[in-house]
Amino acid sequence: MPDEPTEKNKWDRWAGGIDCPMCQPRPESNEYWDFVARLNISSLYLSKNQTYRGHSLLILDVRHATRPDHVSFDEWALFCADLYAAEKALMQTLQPDHINVEMMGNVVPHLHWQIVPRYRSDPRWGAPVWTTTRNEMTVTALPQADQIDLIRKVRNATNKEALPD
Predict the structure, then answer these.
(1) At the fourth CATH level, which superfamily is domain 7-120+133-162?
(2) Could you state, in order of their start, the residue ranges of all structural domains in the chain?
(3) Residue 84: what are its φ and ψ, rounded to 5°?
(4) Residue whose C-alpha is closest to residue 14's, from 105, 108, 103, 134
(5) Do 153 and 117 touch, CB atoms closer than 8 A?
(6) 54 against 131, higher pLDDT
(7) What does the pLDDT look like over 89-117, one tens digit per residue?
(8) CB neighbours of 70 closer than 8 A, spacing ≥ 6?
(9) What is the value of pTM for the model shown?
């Protein structure tokens, strides 16, 4: 029986683009996210964990890349424009008190933004959400009808924001 891959070996394989769970083609829905919208160079997904209502991922679509220096200047500009449209749509739709945006790649080494609306009432207001380990993170799943409604609202707002003025 082959040895199970270690977390480091799995990360190394993914970083090399081998079996990367964020590379295309990726499922529109899985245990972690639901598809919201395609933008210029990336796709927006609503996280299944809605402890921070509106928590989303913006995943680079054009190819496997792990860091900003792995894409061209023009691709980076489009990826940032997509982030702007997604963040603006989330702010308009959910009206959070603030929003956190972060690009890490420590778990899945593929260029993606974590977009986390923050509310004064959220469990870690005044502190970063990233200091909690994955095992300690609260998981809040919305009822399916609420998740679908939130996807629809964010999709509509994202499509409006992605259109040029």
Answers:
(1) HIT-like (3.30.428.10)
(2) 7-120+133-162
(3) -60, -45
(4) 108
(5) no
(6) 54
(7) 999 999 999 999 999 898 899 999 999 99
(8) 111
(9) 0.90
